Amino acid sequence: MSGTATRRPADRLTTGLWATGGLVFLFIYLPLAVVVLYAFHDASIVAWPFKPFTTRWFGALLEDRALIDAAIASLKLALMATAIALGVGVPGAFALDRLQFPGKAAFERLVLLPLILPGVITGVALLTFFSFIGLSLSSGFPLVPGWPVVLGHGAALTSVVVTQVYARLRRFDRVLEEASQDLYASEWATFWNVTLPVIRSAVLGSALLVFTLSLDEIAVTFFLIGRQNTIPLQIWGLLRRGITPEVNAAATIIFALSVVVIVLWARLTREATE
Amino acid sequence: MSATELPRVTPLDRLRASTRLRTLVGAALPVGWVTILLLLPYLFLFAHSFFRLRNGQLTHELTLENYGRLFGTALYPQTILFSAGIALRVTLCSLLLAYPLAYLLAFKVKRHRNLLYMAVIIPLWVSYLVRAYAWKIILGQEGILNGFLMAIGVIDQPLTMLLYSKWAVMLALIHIYTPFTLMPIYAVLEAIPVSYKEASQDLYASRWATFRHVVLPLSLPGVVAGCTFAFVLSMGDFIAPLLLGGNDSALMVSNLVVSLFGVAFNWPLGAAVSVVMLGMTLVLLTIARGIEDRMNYAGGQGKAMGRGALHT
Amino acid sequence: MPPILQLSHLTKRFPNGAVAVDDVSLDVAPGEFLTLLGASGSGKTTTLRMIAGFEHPTSGEILMDGRPLTLLPPFKRELNTVFQQYALFPHMSVRDNVGYGLRMRKVPKAEIAERVAQALEMVQLGALGERAPRQLSGGQQQRVALARALVNRPRVLLLDEPLGALDLKLRKEMQLELKHLNRQLGITFLYVTHDQEEALTMSDRIALMRNGRIEQLSGPREMYEQPRTRYVADFIGETNLLAGKTAGSWIAIRPEHIRPAAVTDGPIRLDVTVTDVVFTGAVTRVHTRLASGEPLVLHWPAGGAPPAADARLTVTWDEERATRVGD
């Protein structure tokens, strides 16, 4: 904490602050710790007391065909959603930053909506849309989990890319592009050699974010899913039926993966601000 | 140029026109996509709230009866108010928990501050289901809390009212949304220059007075943003009630929507409820943005709301 | 010799109605060091940017070697710019920065390496090729920006207030260095600044701009000694402006030409009261007030003891040193 030679007399305000902060931190983490702990619980019912230690639930995961299918579907979905979100979001961010076009203000508001509204509303809206145009929820299966859910994720998560890349673009000094053109690089060469490398961390970071969010997406997916479940929905089903520690094992893996992804994302975006 | 001559199109004009054309083409993809896949669906939702349900079949006839039912039957306004009440309590508790931790991180933590902040934020990205489910383990009849309390002899019988009640739902929601509330508050607090606090103390203000008169007002945009998020998202939450609500599981607005679009199969009514939710949310956001604008003394740092939405 | 660069009735009007450049015409001679001087908002930077290609003129033409430049994008123009804040690419090393233009023009790699090394030597940064821009000091970054432009051997070099961020001593050194490069390389330099002393130091000719127009175009000495309008007299160097006999006319006399009157001096004599005496090192400035209340500043001759405040003096100057200027 403080390494100063002289210390102010211990004051209750600061101690209280540390205590409160610490408790809140614990509050945030203990439930997660419990989930991870019980992934190693040596009994079929998740109950007190904890029985150490087994890894059989992780093994059970590998044999749970339905769960594995769901995992594959989730991965496919996440990859496609990321591709769509980047393909639409990066140009969208540039359009917001650089272009003046009719309806720009509305576009800006619209793009933010899925981020701010509860997922239920976006999910339900997309459902009515797809049913109206007659696109079946299972269309495209088994190549994709279903076109509506792919497009739905893409639509909802484009906002993440737009906001992140747009924020980065606003900090981007356009004189670098002028310098590049002054040095004989065409507009495309400038984008490729100067603009993109400089904003690369924001693009990659938002891609990672979209990927993770898609894997964990529940609300929109709930309404748009077809025949094949995604991981969250599969787990949801398991939860409603009965809780074996297998769910804990799955949750632990998801936790570990999320941590890795988020740390990567933090590294990427921190580099950008240096 | 005499009055009878037509204005000549100079090469410069043509250059400007081609730039404008490229602008429109460049904007076409993202704008088109967002229009088709976001604007239209929201509009369709709105339209669906006016459709009539005949003999369990969806028709495209326009009617106001859905709204009539919505506002006429006690169930719906009650549910909305109930959800709002829960959301309000969740928001307040989250605020009380988040602010001290945010303050601690922003001002009192010197080493590894980024690391600790990341640690606080990470749970947000961990599966939502996992976090809600955790409380099921903790609060169940054979769950951790009961087991623990019995083991130390505080109670003889497991408490049954812990799980499957609105308190469980609230607890889970507070747990889930506290980091959400924390982020914008931290962002704003961190941006307050140390020199402001130093200046305040130089002018004879105690630490508490400095907090009250300088730090707190400056942090309000973050507080507003964080609370708005927590409120809107907890009001729209349907997972926690379903997992932890038990008999109360249908008492939140989103659960209504889910069942109306599911088992109850009444899309128009579901759409109407959604539209009301949407309207409430938009109104709330507009108010929040207005408050935030007026309180944004820091200026030039971007809106706390925007930053919150960026999850950065 | 025909001008290398010609601006012909160049005008730039912005969408909000502001006219940044108003019918500017100018011929730039090959090899000369021409400065666009002016306060902010005078249109000097906008003019430079139009020549570089970053702004489209509303009307008018830019010709280089007699050929119109106006419709060409920047990457097709044979000129290079040194930017005010250097605009070094942060994700490239110094060497890659300097070689960028050559790379874009598909110059063979061996030649790029050689020319980059030469350019870095020329600005005395030979050892720093592998560094990243953020590891360099302001002065070093400025020289990298210079090398990056010069390595392409442009016909015309555009410089947009490149020395503004440097501290005084470094700035003066760089001014001389730029002047030398201009002479040595024979490249035409088109320089933008708001610092009149800088303009006087480096330029062959100065175009003083005001409100989008050229107020006066002449060599430094001529602009200093024979300002044509009150604005020019006031902008360049220090000057005293005394109301002339007719409205709208003024007499401009520079402080260094005013001295305490001796018996042998001519008919110009003014009685003044000293208000302030300011010692600035090389020169002692004596601020005075005329009977009419107008201020008058003079430089006290070196070696003499300056007067005290509130002292009364009679001052004079040689008639040919004063200029009559209009508004």
What key attributes describe this structure?
heterotrimer, A: 274 residues, mainly alpha, disordered N terminus, B: 312 residues, 73% helix, disordered C terminus
Report the mean per-residue pLDDT of chain C as an integer.
92
Which stretches of chain B are poorly predicted, pLDDT < 50 over at least 5 residues? 300-312
- SSE order of chain C, as H and E? EEEHEEEHHHEHEHEEHHEEEEEEEE
Q: Bin the strand percentage of chain C.
A: 25-35%
The side-by-side strand order for the widest beta sheet of chain B comes to 1-2
Main sheet characteristics of chain C: 6 strands, mixed
Low-confidence runs of at least 5 consecutive residues of chain C: none
Calculate Rg of chain B over CA atoms: 26 Å
Strand content of chain B: under 5%
The outline of chain B comes out as flat
Shape of chain C: elongated
Number of strands of chain C: 18
Give the overall pLDDT of chain B as a whole number. Answer: 82
Order of helices and strands of chain B: HEEHHHHHHHHHHHH
Protein described:
The complex is a heterotrimer of chains A (274), B (312) and C (327). Chain A is mainly alpha-helical. Chain A has eleven helices and no strands. Chain B is mainly alpha-helical. Chain B is 73% helix and 3% strand. Chain B has helices at residues 11-48, 65-72, 75-108, 113-125, 128-139, 144-151, 166-190, 194-202, 207-235, 239-244, 253-261, 267-295, 304-310, and strands at 51-54, 57-62. Chain B has a two-stranded antiparallel sheet. In chain B, helix 1 crosses helix 12 (267-295), helix 8 (194-202) runs antiparallel to helix 9 (207-235) and helix 11 runs antiparallel to helix 12. Residues 300-312 of chain B have low confidence and may be disordered. Chain C has 327 residues and is of the alpha+beta class. Chain C is 26% helix and 31% strand. Chain C has helices at 44-52, 94-104, 109-122, 138-150, 168-185, 196-202, 220-225, 230-235, and strands at 5-13, 19-28, 33-38, 59-64, 67-68, 79-82, 156-160, 188-193, 205-210, 213-218, 240-243, 249-253, 259-260, 270-279, 284-290, 295-299, 312-316, 323-326. In chain C, the strands form four sheets. In chain C, strands 6-7-8-3-9-10 form a six-stranded mixed β-sheet, sandwiched between helices. In chain C, strand 1 (5-13) and strand 2 form a beta hairpin. Chain C is elongated and about 75 Å long. Chain C starts with a strand and ends with a strand. In chain C, 38% of the residues are buried. The model of chain C has no long low-confidence stretch (mean pLDDT 92). Chains in contact: A-B, A-C, B-C. At the A-C interface, helix 7 and helix 8 of A face strand 6 and helix 2 of C.
